[in-house]
Amino acid sequence: MALRTAPRVRSDAVPLRAFRSKGRPSAIAGVGTYAPDRVMTNADLAKIVETSDEWIVERTGIRRRHLAEPGTTTFELATRAAREALQNAEVSAEELDLIVVATSSPDGPFPSVACRVQNELGVPGACAFDVLAACTGFVYGLSLADAFIASGRADTVLVIGAEVLSRMLDWQDRATSIIFGDGAGAAVVRAARRGAGFRAWCLGSDGRGYDKVTAGDIPRGAYAAHQAQPLIAQKGPDVFKFATDIFIRQAYAVADAAGAAIEDIDLFVPHQANRRIIEAAARRVGLPMERVQVNLDEYGNTSTASIPLALGDALKSNRIKSGDQVLLAGFGSGLTWGACLLEWE
Ligand code: COA
After folding, report:
1. What does the record give as EC number (predicted)?
2. What is the crossing angle of helices 137-150 and 306-316, to 10°?
């Protein structure tokens, strides 16, 4: 039976902070996506690591993932998604006041991917920087856009999630190589035209879980001759439990802050990590799967790109109409989490 009241919280559970958007409202004006052409199926993976299509589909829901050609950079993927988002929003790049790129796989420690995207777009002047919050990064980026617009520091913001995770994978590690994929998604955020847009947020982190999903360390020796490739490692079952719990609690927290009920949510666009996590959370909050956007079968987990890729697919298939209440929710390494409820313009 569907649970419609907020679940009881364990006494050791980290408290969630949720708040209603204040100040000038902002809304998503356009979304763009990009996934590389190259596809790796589960059967392809089973040729290089001990696994099977059956196991991966049953335990994760993933069937394929798109991988960038060797040598491709994160900023290239980010720029492609950005151009499509600007076009769909009917906004010219010159109008941007702020460019935020969320990524877990930057092309290097610095300069930021955002500055490389800005250079590709040929629009010097706007503020540009990266956000590191792993798979939650895109929601954190949206919250920055909302805050900048609310406070009058920006009118038009480009938020991008982009990843070339394939270069950070140990292909022999079946706990991670089966999960991740490459891709990018972007959203143009502007002052809302008719008072709709972002309604409430739930953002947080719990550094006690810093070792649950990691990607290596930069060598600590001052003269490290060979910098090891940062490889992704995770404690899968621990993350699974955390993710399901945080999806459920965030959904209630953000709905409550917005003065809405779970039943009011027309579409839930979750971070695409594992179909079982998404289904368990949807079942517990009482959202039927018809109101949940899932595309991880095609892309796997693309970290910061996963929510905008799913949102883009939802828009392309006309699953969102003006006035719909849309819940975006993510979680990731850190541990981090973030959700927002928005009314589509
Ligand atoms: N193929 C075949 N068998 C596999 C496998 C694979 N790719 N990965 C693990 N197994 C085996 C294990 O060896 C284990 O075998 P055993 O019972 O004989 O010891 C069994 O399957 C179960 O392993 P377990 O790790 O408990 O699997 P799981 O059901 O928890 O699924 C994940 C593993 C990683 C798919 C799952 O834990 C998960 O998705 N966690 C969340 C990860 C996540 O979201 N990360 C991103 C954070 S943004």
Report:
1. 2.3.1.180
2. 80
CA distances for 163 relative to 17, 71, 116, 334, angstroms: 28, 13, 14, 17
Select 14-345's CATH number: 3.40.47.10, 3.30.43.10, 3.30.200.20, 1.10.1040.10.
3.40.47.10
Q: What is the pLDDT of residue 194?
A: 80
pLDDT value, residue 1? 39
* Phi, psi angles (nearest 5°) of residue 120: -65, -40
CB 143 within 8 A of CB 105: no
Asked if residue 60 has its Cβ within 6 Å of ligand 1, the reply is: yes
For residue 230, what are its two tokens?
Answer: 């940062």
Nearest CA to ligand 1 atom 3: 51
What secondary structure letter does DSSP report for 230? Answer: P
What is the pLDDT at residue 42? 97
**How does pLDDT run across 30-67, given as a tens digit for each residue?**
999 999 999 999 999 999 999 999 999 999 999 999 99
Ligand 1 close to Cβ of residue 55 (< 6 A) = yes
| Domain spans of the chain, in order of start | 14-345
**Which atom of ligand 1 lies at the shortest distance from residue 273's CA?**
44
d(CA 197, CA 169): 37
Output the pLDDT for position 197: 96
* Cα 65 to Cα 180: distance, rounded to the nearest angstrom: 7
